[in-house]
UniProtKB/TrEMBL annotation:
This is Probable membrane transporter protein. It is found in: Cell membrane. InterPro entries: TM_pro_TauE-like, TSUP. It holds the Pfam family TauE. It comes from the Bacteria. Belongs to the 4-toluene sulfonate uptake permease (TSUP) (TC 2.A.102) family. It comes from Thioclava pacifica DSM 10166. It is a multi-pass membrane protein.
Length: 252
C-alpha cells in the first residue's frame, strides 16, 4: 500500500490512535510519539510525512475548541512565539537533508529531559514578567528551527507555559493555536521540499482518521484532570518524549 507493507500501515494507524488520545488529554506530544515510533519501522522522510496532515487537522480541533474569540485572544497573548514559528520553520525545513537527524534529536531531547526532571523533583523555574517577551521570542526561534527539520516544535512552548504557570484550559488552547500555525507552515514547506508527495500524501491523510478518534477520547480524559494532575502528567509525558528522542539520537 503506497510503498508500505500492510503491517507497517496497521502499526502506524495504532500509533496514531494512541498519539491522538495523548494529545487530546494533555494538548501535545502527538508528533513526538508518532515520529519517534514511526522512525523505528519507517524511513525518516516517510515518518515525517505521515505525521504532517494529522497534526494539521487535530490542531484545528484543539485551537478552536472554546471558539474563535478565545483562540484569537491566545494569538494576541502569545504573538511573539507565533511570529518566530512562522519565520523559522520554513528556514529550517530547507536544512532537512543537511543536518543529521541524530544531532537534532540529541539537542532537543537533552534539555527536555533535564527540565522535566527538575520540575518533577519539586523545583520551580519561573519566568519574571519583565523577561517574558525575550524568553518567548528565544523559545519561539528554537521551536521554529527544530520544527522544520523534525516536525516537533512544541517542547519550547510547553516549557514556557509551565514556567509561567499558565492555567490548564489556556495552556491547551494556546498549544493548539501555536501548533496549528506551525502545522500550516510545515505542510506548505514540505509540499515544496518534496517530503509530502504523491506517495506520502494518501498515507498521511489515512492517519487523520485514527488521530481524530483518539483525540476525542483524550478530550474526555482532559476534562476530568485537575490542574495538579494535569501539570504532573504534562511533565511526565514531556520527559518521556525527551528520553525517546535521546534514544533515537544514540541509535543513530
Amino acid at each position: 500500500m503506497f510503498g508500505l507493507e500492510l503491517w507497517q500501515v496497521a502499526l502506524a494507524l495504532g500509533v496514531t490512535l494512541f498519539a491522538g488520545f495523548v494529545k487530546g488529554a494533555v494538548g501535545f506530544a502527538m508528533p513526538m510519539i508518532m515520529l519517534s515510533s514511526f522512525a523505528s519501522f519507517l524511513p525518516p522522510h516517510q515518518a515525517l510525512a505521515l505525521l504532517i496532515l494529522p497534526t494539521l487537522v487535530t490542531n484545528v480541533m484543539q485551537a478552536f475548541r472554546q471558539g474563535v474569540r478565545a483562540a484569537l485572544g491566545s494569538v494576541s497573548r502569545y504573538r511573539l512565539f507565533i511570529a518566530m514559528i512562522i519565520v523559522f520553520i520554513p528556514v529550517s525545513a530547507t536544512l532537512v537533508d543537511i543536518i543529521p537527524q541524530a544531532l537534532m534529536y540529541a539537542l532537543l531531547g537533552g534539555p527536555i529531559v533535564a527540565f522535566a526532571i527538575w520540575q518533577i523533583s519539586g523545583r520551580q523555574i519561573t519566568v519574571p514578567t519583565r523577561h517574558r517577551a525575550v524568553t518567548e521570542t528565544v523559545l519561539g526561534i528554537i521551536g521554529g528551527l527544530y520544527g522544520g527539520i523534525s516536525g516537533i516544535w512544541g517542547p519550547p512552548l510547553i516549557i514556557y507555559l509551565i514556567s509561567i504557570d499558565a492555567p490548564k484550559q489556556e495552556a491547551v488552547r494556546i498549544l493548539g493555536v501555536v501548533f496549528l500555525t506551525g502545522a500550516i507552515i510545515l505542510t506548505g514547506s514540505h509540499l515544496v521540499s518534496g517530503v509530502l508527495n504523491a506517495q506520502t500524501i494518501p498515507l498521511s491523510l489515512l492517519m487523520v482518521l485514527p488521530a481524530l478518534a483518539g483525540m476525542k477520547l483524550g478530550f474526555k480524559a482532559q476534562d476530568k484532570l485537575d490542574p495538579v494532575r494535569f501539570r504532573r502528567w504534562t511533565l511526565i509525558l514531556l520527559g518521556l518524549a525527551g528520553a525517546n528522542l535521546l534514544r533515537r539520537a544514540l541509535m543513530g
